[in-house]
Every structure is written in structure tokens, then in C-alpha cells.
Amino acid sequence: MAARKAPRRTAQSQRQARAGKVAVKGPQKRVVADKKAAAGALPQWTPAEVEEAFRRFAAANPDPKGELKHVNPFTLLVAVVLSAQATDAGVNKATPALFAAADTPAKMAALGEARVQDLVKTIGLFRTKAKNVVALSKQLVELHGSEVPRSREALEALPGVGRKTANVVLNIAFGEPTIAVDTHIFRVGNRTGLATGKTPFEVETKLDQVVPDKYKRHAHHWLILHGRYICVARRPQCEKCLIADLCKWPAKSLLAG
Fold first, then answer.
1. 163: domain CATH number?
2. Is position 164 annotated as part of the catalytic site?
């Protein structure tokens, strides 16, 4: 079946959105709309609409970067492990001193759990995270020649590393077209109707199916940044949204004019 064309009014609607001609409904209607989106009840995006959305993301930010500070694949892995249930900004405040002391698996293992705890104590769940960071460092030395492995299976076998963390490392450190679904991407996927699912894995699977291959390398970053700064949880900034006219969220509408 041939892909449906994008709506004729896309260009005009986008001009309206950029001019702030988007109305966002009140809190109660936003809650209802989010529940409807979470139930997977929104209209499906056409392939042409998905293509147009990522074309705009690419045009606006051709080379997006992750916001976690790191100096090599190992420090990236550690930063992502530390970022679980924490903000990137909070992690970035703690890691400069940590990485100055230990930027390789051998140095981190030698640093020891107590010292790592002290350096990351401003981060939530720091005791468990420090334990995992030291343990994964020892495994990298013993099993992987102090190198971060390039396979999801090997990464997920490390202490404190789940699918999301593995996908982030594969994408940022090694350029793999993986999409790590965090709370921001989960929200964007469901709220917009782009990729709905009850679990992060379901949303990841749907995104892998619908995002054109040429955009998958950076899709992870575009969607995270969109969720972090535009499609925020409490009151999305639809007036600033690049894809407001394509989004299926029923609590916003484009104004005439």
C-alpha cells in the first residue's frame, strides 16, 4: 500500500505553530488527553507525517548531542549508570571530580566503593550506584580487557546496566542507531501518538518500526530534547513545538489565521 501524503495544510499549519497560534487546553482537559494518549487511542501517524517530523528535527538540529559530560566510552557508561532516576544536570555536577580521579575501569576499581560514594553522594541512590560502578569497572578489567563492549548483551550483563543504558552507550559511544526510551521519550511517544506503548520496550519497538532508517542515528537525541524542553510533563510548550501540526494530542489545537 502506498504511503499517504502529508496533509496539504502542513506548511501553513507549521507557520501557525511557529507564530504561536496554538491553543493549549486547561489542566483537566490535558489530563484527560494524556490518559487517552496512554490508552493508545490516538490516530496513527502516516509514514509521510513521521518523515516530515524527523525532517524538521534534523533541519533544526542537524547534529544533536547528549547532555551527559564524558571523555570516553567508559566515562559515558558510568555517567549513564549514575543518571538513573536523576537529572543530567545533577550528574554533571558530580562527575568532573570523579572522572578526574578515575577515567578508566582500572582506576575506578582501584578508587574503591567508599571513595566513589563520597564523590557522587549528591546523586540519588548514590550508594547502590557507587557499588555498581566499581563492580562494572572490575568486570570490564577482568572480562573485556578494560574496554567497553560494543554489544547490547555484554553491556546488559554488567552491574547496574539495563537496556536503556546499553542503548545510550551504543548510540553515543559507537554510533549505533539505537533508541533509548527514557521518561521523556516515553511521554513524547505516547502523547503525540508517534509511538504508543505501555512499557518503554513497547515504545522502543514501535519507534524502531516507524522512524525512517536515515534518522535513527539521531532520533534518540531529538526526542529526548523535545521531551525535556518542549513536550514537558505538566504543560507542554505547544506554541514552540516544531511538530504541533502533526501531533495527535487532543488537548491542543491550531488556531485559524
1. 1.10.340.30
2. yes
Q: Give the count of beta carbons closer than 10 Å to the beta carbon of residue 241.
A: 22
Residue 138 falls in the annotated catalytic set: no
Q: Is the domain of 146 the same as that of 204? A: no
Query: What's the pTM?
Result: 0.86
Q: Is residue 136 part of a domain?
A: yes
User: Which of 174, 203, 229 marks a domain boundary?
Assistant: 174
Residues 151, 214: one domain?
no
Catalytic pick from 36, 129, 164, 252?
A: 164
Judge if 164 and 90 occupy the same domain.
Answer: yes
- Catalytic hit among 34, 129, 182, 252: 182
> Do residues 155 and 93 share a domain?
yes
Contacts 24+ apart (CB under 8 A), 33-39: 33/191, 33/249, 33/250, 33/251, 34/190, 34/191, 34/251, 36/250, 37/190, 37/191, 37/192, 37/193, 37/196, 37/248, 37/249, 37/250, 38/190, 38/196
In a domain, 11, yes or no: no
Output the tens digit of pLDDT for each of the chain's 257 residues: 333 343 444 454 455 445 458 889 999 999 999 999 888 889 989 999 999 999 999 999 999 998 999 999 999 999 999 999 899 999 999 999 999 999 999 999 999 999 999 999 999 999 999 999 999 999 999 999 999 999 999 999 999 999 999 999 999 999 999 999 999 999 999 999 999 999 999 999 999 999 999 999 999 999 999 999 999 999 999 999 999 999 999 999 887 65
Range of the domain at 140: 73-174
